[in-house]
């Protein structure tokens, strides 16, 4: 076995830049703020940061609407600030991943301005322009992920353009070679500056069916779900030609020793194709969102893990995600006590974990009053529970005003319990979520079995989830009680020494039967 690469052994930490650390008092986080917090991330023990988009943007979708792929939005800083942040990260052994948004631009990107200026514009075909349907109206039934038709009428030029998200986010035409070439230059621009990789936004959306046929109705849609789920995105996403795009990006990444992570929300069976093939590798890590949508039951999760492990193509490296800037926080989904078990799960499965900022504090979704709503998804389809502001609230650093996040009014409210739930307070409390997370990260570093060893399911019943990680002669056993009552696990043969538990100091060496307290997870090492 060849030695594992940094992106295989390491842990990625997602920074939502608006909410991490503000340095200039405008209530919005920025690059100098992130730079000031690198030592905190080193203390925690992560290996890389992925920063959500920081490029110039009208912020209709908070940076996922890019107006210039090769600049920095003034709200976040300057290119010089970015270079300084990158150098400071590298000096500390931290890698930096940026967020590439290649599926769509901002409507204010000069490419789109030129494209929309006239039907004869040389950039007309850079976007997806179509005539009305024969009887009038949008060209087909495709629905925007943020509600309403995915087609916007442009009266001046007399055609519709396609936008999978907001109408301020027109989709690029990735069948046009000029678009491909332009975006590959963007990759090179950042790789040449020293960036260690990209998370690629909505990769599975990038190519649409060439004939733009209607999407089929979704028989499972019911009132209360967002409108875009009324149809299955069969023809608007996940087309076979997308893999050639991933392969082209991968070739450039490989030239620079960089890593690509793809955002893909698909059933695992379809996800695997995004690893590509031996001849045409795709992204290194197609995001695995199995745990984000999972019912929190040991048997169901055990099944998902085994299925995912079983489907991985030869040589493919797994990865795991518990939270991100689009989904409710894990502590809200599974509860405060189980959030500790979930963190142990994330950091002991085989594969690269991505840790969402604030989850190491046990932050929960923050209730957002109607007048505080910022997310366009919530504004377009209020009250469905799909708004993303609650999981994007500011990080809490210490007990100073606004939790040390900003000297100004934060752009979203802090969690109410920030005076206790902040980095400084939790660092001082060995029983805290922050200390548990640091302990797990240290354990990964100390044990190759956790960082890169093989994964083997261990038979368990009821609410207990158990597996082994093996490397050479080393065997680590992870036993997680996903329930609120006591539980037992029949141990495999041998004596096991507890290394870390979610519930206080590790106990005595055990053999035969392991008792687990309510909501307890434990990592044990088999004695030689
Ligand atoms: C991705 C991002 C999300 C954004 C969308 C459109 O899903 O994670 O935040 O709104 O793409 O760019
Ligand atoms: Mg700021």
Automatic annotation (TrEMBL):
One Pfam family this sequence matches: Alpha-amylase
CDD domains associated with the record: AmyAc_OligoGlu_like
Signal peptide: none
InterPro entries: GH, GH13_cat_dom, Glyco_hydro_b, O16G_dom_2
Domain (Glycosyl hydrolase family 13 catalytic): residue spans on this chain: 14-392
Keywords for this protein: Hydrolase
A molecular function (GO) term: hydrolase activity
Family (UniProt): Belongs to the glycosyl hydrolase 13 family.
Protein name: Alpha-amylase family glycosyl hydrolase
């Amino acid at each position: 076995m060849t030695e594992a690469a940094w992106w295989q052994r390491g842990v990625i930490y997602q920074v939502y830049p608006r909410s991490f650390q503000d340095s200039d008092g405008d209530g919005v986080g920025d690059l100098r703020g992130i730079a000031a917090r690198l030592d905190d991330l080193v203390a925690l023990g992560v290996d890389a940061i992925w920063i959500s988009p920081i490029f110039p943007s009208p912020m209709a979708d908070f940076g996922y609407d890019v107006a210039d792929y090769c600049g920095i939005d003034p709200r976040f800083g300057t290119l010089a600030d970015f270079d300084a942040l990158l150098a400071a990260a590298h000096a500390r052994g931290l890698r930096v991943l940026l967020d590439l948004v290649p599926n769509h631009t901002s409507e204010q990107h000069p490419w789109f301005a030129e494209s929309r200026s006239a039907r004869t514009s040389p950039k007309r075909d850079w976007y997806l322009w179509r005539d009305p349907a024969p009887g009038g109206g949008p060209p087909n039934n495709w629905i925007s992920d943020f509600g309403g038709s995915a087609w916007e009428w442009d009266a001046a030029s007399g055609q519709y353009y396609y936008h999978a998200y907001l109408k301020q986010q027109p989709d690029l035409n990735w069948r046009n070679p000029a678009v491909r070439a332009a975006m590959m230059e963007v990759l090179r621009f950042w790789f040449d500056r020293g960036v260690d990789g990209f998370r690629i936004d909505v990769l599975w959306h990038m190519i649409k069916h060439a004939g733009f046929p209607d999407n089929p109705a979704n028989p499972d849609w019911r009132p209360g779900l967002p409108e875009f789920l009324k149809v299955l995105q069969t023809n608007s996403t996940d087309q076979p030609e997308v893999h050639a795009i991933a392969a082209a990006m991968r070739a450039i990444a490989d030239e620079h020793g960089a890593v690509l992570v793809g955002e893909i929300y698909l059933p695992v069976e379809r996800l695997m194709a995004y690893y590509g093939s031996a001849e045409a590798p795709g992204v290194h890590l197609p995001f695995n969102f199995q745990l984000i949508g999972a019912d929190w039951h040991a048997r169901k999760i055990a099944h998902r893990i085994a299925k995912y492990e079983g489907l991985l193509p030869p040589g493919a490296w797994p990865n795991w995600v518990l939270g991100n800037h689009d989904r409710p926080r894990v502590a809200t989904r599974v509860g405060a006590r189980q959030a500790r078990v979930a963190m142990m799960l994330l950091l002991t499965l085989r594969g690269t974990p991505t840790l969402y900022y604030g989850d190491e504090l046990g932050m929960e979704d923050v209730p957002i009053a109607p007048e505080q709503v910022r997310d366009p998804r919530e504004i377009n389809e209020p009250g469905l529970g799909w708004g993303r502001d609650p999981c994007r609230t500011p990080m809490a650093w210490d007990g100073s005003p606004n939790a040390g996040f900003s000297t100004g009014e934060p752009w979203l409210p802090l969690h109410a319990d920030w005076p206790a739930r902040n980095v400084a307070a939790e660092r001082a409390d060995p029983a805290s979520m922050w200390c548990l997370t640091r302990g797990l990260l240290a354990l990964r570093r100390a044990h190759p079995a956790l960082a890169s060893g093989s994964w083997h399911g261990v038979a368990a019943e009821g609410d207990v989830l158990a597996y082994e990680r093996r490397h050479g002669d080393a065997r680590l056993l992870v036993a997680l009680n996903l329930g609120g009552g006591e539980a037992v696990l029949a141990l495999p043969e041998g004596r096991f020494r507890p290394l870390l538990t979610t519930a206080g100091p590790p106990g005595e060496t055990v053999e035969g039967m392991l008792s687990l307290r309510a909501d307890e997870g434990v990592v044990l090492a088999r004695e030689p």
